[in-house]
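Table 4 source record.
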Amino acid sequence: MTVEKTTVLVLDSAEPEQLAEFYAGLLGGESTLGKDPDFVEVTGRHGVFLAIHRDHGYAPPSWPRPEDSQQAHLRIVVAREDMDEAEREAVNLGARPIDTKENNGPRDVRTYSDPAGHSFTLATAP
């Protein structure tokens, strides 16, 4: 029997409160500071979306440089008809476009970096 588990993706950042506010705005959630001042959760009606941990020596990942690994990224799935609006929301909140080929097709995927440099994609629902 498998023990029940909950998983949370944790991103490192020099400024976890600011990055949590970015994702709370992007995902329609709230940022919540826990008992540990270096750990902020982004929550919504379905629980925790992700968490941000303070790393005092944080250096943002670089992408798409081949000598550096991408590490991990978030894939945020949106309805095809909402892609352009989702892109506007992300950029207005502080995301920086990395690769935003607007193909409006079934494989429309647009890549950004969040304010701390982590990459994430907006992708159309299959």
